[in-house]
Design brief:
The chain contains four helices and five strands. By secondary structure, the chain is an alpha+beta fold. It has a single domain, classed as Orthogonal Bundle (Arc Repressor Mutant, subunit A). The strands form two sheets. Strands 3-5-4 form a three-stranded antiparallel β-sheet. The longest helix has 25 residues. The radius of gyration is 16 Å and the shape is globular. The relative contact order is 0.13.
């Protein structure tokens, strides 16, 4: 079993990679839906929006981006401004917008059911 360390405030929480894997595509699609971004910016945006709970590394992000691109959910393009470094930006497609909505609904249903089973938030588990 692989583990990922999630940083939450001053506490480090280690969760299984399988649990985090199920939501990373959703996170990536969510930030790209707001504006086109390149890889490093995607990781920074997800980190900032999650108060650094999620810190994606390149080794995690790029396989997700490539998969989303192969599935037609995002398109990559290169921005080559004069005097600056060439970067590959990603933008969400119409197919990606529909997939994002489907994943959001799926996540809301899943997380609500988990909360119902484990007793909601703020419950101390012994």
């Amino acid at each position: 079993m692989y583990l990922i360390t999630i940083y939450y405030g001053r506490h480090n929480m280690t969760i299984s990679k399988e649990l985090a894997k199920g939501s990373t595509g959703l996170l990536v699609l969510s930030v790209i839906a707001v504006k086109d971004m390149y890889g490093y910016l995607i990781t920074k945006e997800i980190g900032m929006l999650s108060n650094d709970v999620f810190k994606l590394k390149e080794g995690t992000l790029y396989p997700i981006l490539h998969s989303l691109e192969e599935e037609g959910y995002v398109e990559g393009y290169f921005d080559d401004p004069e005097g600056r470094r060439r970067r590959k930006y990603y933008k969400i497609t119409q197919k990606g917008v529909r997939e994002l909505e489907r994943r959001r609904e799926e996540w809301m249903t899943y997380s609500s059911a988990v909360r119902s089973v484990i007793g909601g938030t703020g419950v101390a588990l012994a």
